[in-house]
Each structure stands twice: as C-alpha cells, then as structure tokens.
Amino acid sequence: MEDKSITNTIDYRDLNEEIDLQRYWLVLKRRWLPAMTVLLATVVAATYYGAQQKPVYEAGGKLLIQQDRSTNLTGFGTALGQPQALSPFAPGNVLATQADILKSLPVMEEAIRELNLRDGNNQLLSPQALQQNLSVTPADTSDTISVAYTGEDPREAANIVNQVMNSYVRFNVAMNRSEATAAREFVERQLPKAEADVERAAEALRQFKSQNQVVALEVETNATVEAINELNAQINTTQATLADADTRAVNLRQQLGMSVEQALQLATLSQAPGIQQALTDLQTIQTNLANQRTRYTGNHFSVQALERQEAALQDLLRNRVGQVLNTEVSFVPDSLQMSDLSRDLTAQLAQAEIDRLSAVSQIQALAQARNAYIQRSQTFPSLEKQQLELEQRLAVARTSFEALLNSLQEAQLAESQTVGSAQIIETALLPTDPSGQGLSLYLAGGLIAGGLAAVATAFLLDLVDKSVKTVKDAETLLGYTLLGLIPRFSTPADDQSGFSGDQFSPRIVAMRGNEPFICGAYQMLQANLKFISSDKPLRSIAITSSVEQEGKSEVCANLAATMAQAGKQVLLVDADMRAPSQHHLWNVLNTIGLSHVLVGEGDLNRALIPVAQNLTLLPAGVIPPNPLALLDSERMASLINSLAQQFDYVIFDTPPLVGAADAAVLGKSADGILMVIRPRQVDSASVAAAKSLLSRSGANVLGFIANGVDVRNEHDDYVSLAKSRPYGYTDKAIARKNAPVSL
Length: 743
Description:
Blueprint: H1 21-30, H2 32-52, E1 57-65, H3 94-102, H4 105-115, H5 127-132, E2 134-138, E3 144-151, H6 154-211, H7 217-256, H8 260-270, H9 273-295, H10 301-325, H11 340-378, H12 380-416, E4 422-426, H13 439-464, H14 471-478, E5 482-487, H15 509-512, H16 516-530, E6 540-545, H17 552-565, E7 570-574, H18 582-586, H19 594-599, H20 604-607, E8 609-612, E9 615-618, H21 627-631, H22 634-646, E10 649-653, H23 662-669, E11 672-677, H24 684-697, E12 701-709, H25 716-723, H26 731-737
C-alpha cells in the first residue's frame, strides 16, 4: 500500500507527459563512441571527395523586369485579373514566370548557337546540359532576377551569362511586339462593333424621349410635384369656403323656416318686375276691399267690383308666377308678401346656396386636375428607370469605344517600340577566384551530414537496444514508487583481491563505512521504508529483481546492515535457494540453512548466524530439488510469523522473478516486496514480465530500488536525488561522493 505522504521521495510520473530534451542528450552520451565514429568517417569522406574536385568559377549578372502592359493593350487586361505588381508573392508570380522563360529552350538554343558551345563529342551542347549549371533566382523584395553560371572556365562562364541575358532580352522584345500586334488586330476588329453599340444606344434614348414626350424628366417631375402641392392648397381653401357657405345656409334656413329651394324661388319671384307690380296692385285692391266691406255688405256693387278686380289680379299674379317658375301654380304664395328683412334673409340664403354649389364645383374641378397630375407622376419612376438604363448603356458603350481607341493608340506605339520589359542592369564580369565549392565547403557539409548521421546512429542503436537505460525508464515501465537510488561505486583496489577469515565482502559498504555517499543512499532507503506504511508497520520484506546480476543480494546485505546500525534487530534470510550468495558476502559457512529448517533436518537456532551487532543471517542451506514447494508451504508461513515476532525486521533475499515464481510466492506471505532494477543490465521485456507476475500474485509491492546507477547518464532530477546530502555527511564525504565514478 503506497503512502502519498512519503518524505524524501519524488514522484516523476507527470514528467513523462512532457517533451524531455535531456533524455535525447543522454542518448547521445550513451552512444558517443559509435556516433563519433560515424561523424569522423563522414567528415573524412567529404574531405577526400572535396580534395578530388576541380576548382569551379561562378559568374553572375542581373536583370530588371519592368511591368509588361501588353496584356492590357486590348483594354481588358485589368478586367481579366492580370497582376500589376511584380513581387514574387503577387498573384501569378510574374518574376517566377519570367525566370522560367529565361531558362526556356528558345533562349538556351540561341545562346548555344551564338557562343558555339560544344560538348566532348564536338556536338552542340544540349539545352538541358546548359540548364544544369545555370541558376535563375527571382529576388524576394525587388523586381530583379539574378542569373549565374558555374563552370571550370571563368571566361566561358561570364560569356554564357551575358549571352543568355542578351538572348532573353531579344526574345522578350519579340514576344512583346507580337503581343502588341495581336492586341492591335483585336482592337481594330472590335472598334466597328463598339461604334455601332454607341449609335444603337443613342437612338434608343432618343426614341424613348420622343414616345414619352420627355424633354427634361427631372424638371418635369419637379414641376408636377409643385402643381400637385398648389392644387392641394386650392382644394383646402375652397373646402373652407364650402364649409362657410354650408354654415350660413343652415342658419338662414332656421331663421326663415323654409328650404333652400323655396328661398331660391322667392328670390327669383321677388326680382321679377311684373310680379311685384301685380302684387302691389293686388295689395291696393285688397286694402280698398277691406275698407268697403266695413261700409257695405257683400252684395254691394262696389264690394263685388273690388272682389272681381281682386280675382282678376290673383289670376294675373298666378300666370306671371307660373311664367317665371316655368310651371303652373294653383295659388299665389303668401310668402311673396314678405317684409324687407325677410326678403333680405331670403336673398342671403339663396346667395349662400349659390356659393356652396360654386365651391363644390371648384373642388371637383381641382380634384380632377390634381388626379391627372398624380397619375402622370406615377409614371415618372418607370420612366426614370428606363431613361437611366438607356443613359447607362450609352455611357458604357461610349466608355468602351473610347477605351478601344486609346488601346489602339497604345498598341500601335508598343508595336513600333524596340524596348521590352526586361533590361540588363548588371553584366557578368570575369570571375578571378573559385566559387565556394572548395575544400572548406565540403568539410562544412561533411560536418553537417556527419552530425546528422551521428545523431541518427545514436538514436537507432538506442532504439534497437531494449535494455532499461535510465532510472526514469524503469519508473515508467514499472509504475512503482522509487524508494531508493544506489549509485554505482567501486571498492578500493586492495579489497578487490578477496577476503578471508572473519572479513566480509567489500561490497557491503554499510559495514565498512568507507563509502559515505553509498551509505547515505541506504539510509534514505531505510527512512522511506519506515514511513511507507502508516497503518501497518513493515516487519518482513522480500527483495527480488527481474533477472540475475542486478545486485539484489548486495542491496539486501547493505539494507540489513543499515537497519542494524540504527539499533534494530534485523534478520537477513537468504531465500534464494536456487543460487544462494549471502554466505559468500558475509564469509560464513552454509552448513545449516533455510532449506534444512523447512524440511525439519536442522534446528533454527543453530542455523541463525550472528554476523554483526543487531544483525543475524539465516543462510539458504543446501539447494533443494524444488525450492518453490518449500517457500509455498505452511511451515514457511509459520516460520515467517515466528521470525517477525522475534526480530524488528526480517529481510528475504529471493530469486529473480523471470524464470522462477519463488519471489512472488514469498512476497505474498511477507508484508511487502521490493524490486531491484539495475539500468543497462535488464531489458524492458524482462521488467514487464516481472511486473506482470507480481500483479497476478497479489503481492504488496512497496516500490523499487535503482541499483548501480551511473549518475552521469541520468536525468537531472534523479541526479539531484542521488547527490542530496544525507544526514551525518561531512564535507570530506561530500567531496568524495562528487569524485569520478568508475567500475
């Protein structure tokens, strides 16, 4: 069970997601010898090849490319989208096009003929052979083209460049003149059509104005709008007069108590002289008759005479009224005998009616005139649109005709000119020094190519090599926590001859103390194991590796010695009953060991051998025919429990995982298991197989220990971890740990 709060450990797994440039540098450091071999071989080969080459000379000239307007002489060049700028980044890339023309077959063939260039067979040089050594480069920021030729003869190189440029200029002039001729002929064919278009457009506009009686449509439109506004003002004024007449007529009818028709009739009758005379006579007779009746009876002759006169006057009055009204009347209206005031009011009522009828008539006439103007104005938008279209058509036709006339003049002028769009601004001079393709150039090319080949070789060899090369690779493959990093070290020369008596192996540096740097690494490992599990203390630990020669037995011995020096009772059990080695490291006899105890042929107390203060060793004993059966037995499980109660720590040295399942079985019975990884000693396939076996066994994997690490070939993060100053180090020890490491 992992504890995320472990001190003195660093989780580097998130670094795998980043681009690790240092990893590439480490690859080059590991493969420096073959990489340097490839580099030196490439440089030597390039130098030798360069020494065999003959000196070559390069002559160069420069052309100015001006704007070629021949494509616009027809007047349609711009409309067709021809580029105007000569920048190589412009649409159409004009400079690149001219560069291709300069290297075209006609230009090459003319230059070959003019200079009489021949090959080794005394035949005219082929254009392709000339093009191989000729370079044409458009400028990036100016309208120029650089022409260069490389050859063994400097004079020939200069002559070829100058002749090629002269041939191109002549070809350019001829091409421009031919384009101008073609443009002129095209314009001459188009002029009659354009002139006919102008005449048709002008005639269509004239007919339109004639048919619609349009002289100045805009002026007529403004006049119509003004007339409509004037008529609207008159209609409003007349409507006000009509309203006033209606008001007067209503008031007069109410005062007189008669209709307008009656008032008009009375007004007409009152103005007739015969009626007024008859009415006056009738009133006189009626007055006399009234006086006589007061004197006489109705039978008196004077009364009867007056009555007859009255009847005669009434008949006369009725006849005259009928004549005036043009109709027959049966009685004389009493209203004829009205007062002067009534007669005046009646005349006013009649006049009001006349005014009203006059206003109505005027409004109708004005409305008809306004409607006529409005109807006319509604046709103006359509007329304006038609007139605008016709005028635009005429303008376009005139513009095209004038453009063709201008293009014809320009084409005729261009056709008569002898200057093209290309101009030589820099002729080729006779080169005096060889070009840059000397020995130094080949040497530089060899260095570059050799460097690339060396890098490729280093990475190819590293890719083919499947071994675990660094601690970071091991951490990536396993996915376990790195609990300890043991740097590679060598024992003193006087200890390499062997040991005898009670001396133990010089590789157990924790007992000798002559390697404080290595001792500090084991102290860190002990501290990490102490805090790796917070809920259950670790008492029994199995240590294994993927394959042999990874130093797991040496790690077991040094870790046990470090724990014992800390005052803990430690038992080191050599559980590798396939190839035991702890008795060799500690220089003890392997007469009675673990195998004897498990099969019941030896006493445990006799098998335990004290090798140092607080440190006891249980050797492996005789090699049994089936070590896995002994380790997976009930007796082994009982022994582990018994030893865990007797000692503070029990460390088991187990066989490698690849090829045997002993470590996986024992690791499941112990409190945890540690893996030892030695970079450059084990391959990735073996590490993956070991991890798979541990995963299937269900063992509690505490982490892994990197052993025999060459800090010079590790990432900076791991180097910092390895070189961190452990507790109790002196300055002398620090100086010694930074000394060069050697096997």
